[in-house]
From TrEMBL:
Similarity-based family: Belongs to the PAPS reductase family. CysD subfamily.
Any single Pfam family the record assigns to this protein: PAPS_reduct
EC annotation from Swiss-Prot or TrEMBL: 2.7.7.4
SUPFAM superfamilies, sorted: Adenine nucleotide alpha hydrolases-like
Region (Disordered) residue spans: 281-305
Sorted UniProt keywords: ATP-binding, Nucleotide-binding, Nucleotidyltransferase, Transferase
UniProt key word Transferase: yes
Domain of life according to the entry: Bacteria
EC class name: transferase
Residue intervals of the Phosphoadenosine phosphosulphate reductase domain: 32-258
Protein name: Sulfate adenylyltransferase subunit 2
Length: 305
């Protein structure tokens, strides 16, 4: 009898684990939803979901919590990718939450709608009856992410308590909830930013153009290069606008998501750049996560992503 070695690459192992998580959650929960922004992590999640259920269609919708302060390139990509897959898109609008009086828009130079997403997200989960929400969080992003389980319990108020996390032994997930509760599920928990880019290259996935080097009008604040083209960031008179060659490591609310100076115009160049960096993408690009070490954890306890 012939015997051959069966070896899996790191990406194969990560992919298999993520596909198992998608299938387990789809089997255990009644109404899952995949949070999809058009960013690189959600793009990888969408591909993994396609593989998990192929040749059947993805058996749950995708949802974008839309702040209204988006990069146009990302929204165009989001709509095109959703159309290609045929999956149903649910848009939860922060502007609608403001109009209904559910949240109050921040004022001042550092105003952002990023924090307002919490109420919009929880309202959408309740409105549609979603009991599991797939998110693209990775444990390498920052300390609060590292406290999450793969299946992360949220109480009836949508809140997360890191001291009340359920144990996860190997790949055994506790999926039991009562009415009104839900879970966040993180299929990319064991992936790193570099793994994401390597997978994008291996799978030939398309990304929004702002992930690659381009010329953009920006201004500097607290060491971050914030967007000056869309007009969503409240630039002060003492913050001059200038052109720079930049790219984005992550995409989100344009008022607080910073670009990085970069000449990386191709996948290979970006991967080489990421492999050499020692700063996490959120630490380098998200203004609201740099206010304090506990900023993200505080928002997660309130029901944030």
């Amino acid at each position: 009898m012939q015997r051959g070695d069966y070896l899996l690459s790191q990406l194969d192992v990560l992919e298999s684990e993520s596909i198992h998580i998608f299938r387990e959650v789809a089997a255990e929960f009644e109404k899952p939803v995949l949070l999809f922004s058009g960013g690189k992590d959600s793009i990888v999640m969408l591909r993994l979901a396609e593989k998990a259920f192929w040749p059947a269609p993805i058996p749950f919708p995708v949802m974008h919590v839309d702040t209204g302060h988006n990069f146009p390139e990302v929204i165009e990509f989001r709509d095109r990718r959703v159309a290609e897959t045929g999956v149903r898109l649910v848009v939860a609008s922060v502007q609608e939450s403001i109009d209904k009086g559910r949240v109050v828009e921040e004022k001042g130079r550092r105003a952002s709608r990023n924090r307002l997403q919490t109420v919009t997200l929880l309202d959408a989960i309740e409105e549609h009856g979603f009991d599991a929400a797939f998110g693209g969080a990775r444990r390498d992003e920052e300390k609060a992410r590292a406290k999450e389980r793969v299946v992360s319990f949220r109480d009836e108020f949508g809140q997360w308590d890191p001291k009340n996390q359920r144990p996860e032994l190997w790949n055994l997930f506790n999926t039991r909830i009562t009415r009104g509760e839900h879970v966040r599920v993180f299929p990319l928990s064991n992936w790193t930013e570099l793994d994401i880019w390597d997978y994008v290259r291996r799978e030939g996935l398309e990304l929004p153009s702002i992930y690659f080097a381009h010329t953009r009008r920006v201004f500097e604040r607290d060491g971050l290069l914030l967007d000056a083209q869309t007009g969503f960031a409240n630039r002060g008179d003492d913050e001059p606008e200038f052109e720079a060659t930049v790219r984005y490591r992550t995409v989100g609310d344009a008022s607080c998501t910073g670009a990085v100076k970069s000449a990386a115009e191709s996948l290979d160049a970006v991967i080489e750049e990421i492999a050499a960096t020692r700063i996490t993408e959120r630490g380098q690009t998200r203004a609201d996560d740099r206010t304090s070490e506990a900023a993200m954890e505080d928002r997660k306890k309130e029901g944030y992503f």
